[in-house]
């Protein structure tokens, strides 16, 4: 989940690997698809008794720890508080992913509450993800140039990976500038408003993605979310005159930690090996990543069900709290030698190493191929 204004730097590298979309060469594993649907029919309802406490407690812990990071004079206590704040606010923020998938009538008031408690205060209202992330799940868009959340990272040059992570450090400052300056100016300058909406209003990693205009009820939600985020951003800047720079700088550092952690998770959410071809549902599943237990740290860096990201691509509407049980049932029904098991991976470090090796090996292969073609 990164803002497009932070990823345009990758445009040159991306253009070297994009190809024209063409039909996938492999069909679907229908046994996998039917079994996934069958074994999850009774666990598909979002439970408010899980969503509400999880989101509110995560946000509460995150803000309390952020206050500690700002107020503690002891450096060690401040650093520990900052780390706790990063992890808790990260978990609270990732409920934005659930908002894009749950039925709008499933959890009355949850979208509004999340925006008030988390989205607007962190300058990442749900408009940044809604009607964007669903394009990533579209059958004919996934992995193509029309996917806002896909880059063939495993096929790009080695320097693109550290750059992909480092630009996340700038995301909180970019969000602050967007809400405090660009959005208010866009209200009186229509061409700027169009530019900001198309290029700087989506949590996407594809620098070529452009948003379509918001319509209907969503357009009304966008207005109020943008208004709230702009007022809050201006208040944050104004707080410097009352409290000095320290609180704002520490808050931005914590949010940079959240952004980097999310970017690392994004880096290992897929294998990123598709060069623009349309893919079957099974191929999309196998290009995605599950990091199931016993991986000990995945609950921290891939919370709110995102350790089962491949399974989520198989069953996008399944609530996050049901993914663990769905994984257990599928493993039990299909076994370790099945297609389902092919998307299970041991942990973040193994996946990062795999992608890094791929950039070095495949980057060299592409250079050799180009040299041979030129000769």
The chain-level mean pLDDT equals 89
Helix content: 55-70%
Q: Which geometry do the CA atoms define? A: globular
Based on helices, strands and strand pairing, what is the structural class? mainly alpha
In whole angstroms, the N-to-C terminal distance is 41 Å
Oligomer: single chain
Kindly give the count of domains: 1
Low-confidence stretches: 1-25, 366-375
Main sheet: strands, sense, barrel: none
Give me the Rg, rounded: 21 Å
Q: Find the count of extended strands (DSSP E, 2+ residues).
A: 0
Number of helices: 17
Strand content: under 5%
The sequence of SSEs as H and E is HHHHHHHHHHHHHHHHH
Protein architecture, described:
This protein has helices at 11-15, 30-39, 48-71, 75-93, 95-99, 110-119, 133-136, 160-166, 171-188, 190-199, 216-243, 246-267, 281-286, 298-301, 309-314, 323-334, 348-374. It is an all-alpha fold. It has one domain (4-374). The protein is globular. It starts with 10 loop residues before the first helix and ends with a helix. 42% of the residues are buried.
What are the defining features of this structure?
mainly alpha, globular, 375 residues, disordered N terminus
Concise account of the structure shown:
This protein is mostly helical and 375 residues long. Helix content is 58%, strand content 0%.
């Amino acid at each position: 989940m990164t803002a497009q204004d932070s990823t345009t730097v990758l445009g040159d590298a991306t253009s070297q690997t994009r190809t024209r979309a063409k039909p996938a060469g492999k069909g679907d594993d229908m046994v996998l698809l039917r079994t996934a649907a069958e074994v999850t029919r009774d666990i598909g309802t979002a439970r408010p008794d899980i969503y509400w406490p999880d989101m509110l407690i995560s946000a509460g812990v995150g803000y309390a720890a952020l206050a500690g990071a700002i107020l503690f004079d002891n450096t060690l206590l401040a650093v520990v508080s900052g780390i706790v704040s990063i992890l808790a606010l990260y978990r609270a923020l990732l409920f934005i992913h659930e908002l894009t998938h749950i039925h709008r009538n499933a959890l009355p008031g949850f979208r509004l509450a999340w925006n008030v408690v988390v989205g607007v205060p962190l300058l990442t209202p749900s408009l940044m993800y809604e009607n964007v992330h669903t394009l990533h799940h579209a059958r004919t868009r996934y992995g193509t140039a029309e996917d806002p959340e896909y880059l063939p990272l495993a096929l790009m040059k080695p320097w693109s990976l550290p750059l992909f992570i480092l630009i996340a450090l700038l995301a909180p400052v970019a969000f602050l500038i967007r809400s405090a300056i660009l959005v208010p100016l866009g209200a009186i300058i229509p061409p700027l408003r169009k530019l900001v909406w198309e290029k700087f209003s989506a949590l996407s990693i594809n620098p070529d993605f452009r948003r379509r205009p918001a319509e209907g009820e969503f357009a009304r939600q966008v207005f109020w979310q943008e208004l709230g985020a702009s007022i809050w951003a201006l208040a944050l800047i104004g707080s410097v005159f009352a409290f000095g720079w320290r609180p704002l700088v520490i808050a931005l550092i914590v949010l940079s930690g959240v952004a980097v952690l999310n970017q690392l998770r994004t880096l290992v959410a897929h294998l990123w090996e598709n060069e623009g071809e349309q893919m079957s549902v099974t191929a999309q599943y196998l290009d995605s990543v599950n990091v199931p237990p016993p991986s000990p740290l995945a609950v921290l860096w891939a919370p709110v069900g995102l350790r089962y990201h491949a399974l989520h691509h198989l069953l996008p509407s399944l609530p996050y709290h049901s993914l663990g049980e769905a994984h257990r049932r599928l493993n039990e029904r299909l076994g370790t030698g099945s297609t389902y098991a092919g998307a299970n991976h041991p942990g973040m470090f193994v996946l990062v190493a795999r992608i890094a090796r791929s950039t070095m090996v495949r980057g060299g292969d592409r250079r050799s191929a180009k040299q041979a073609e030129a000769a």
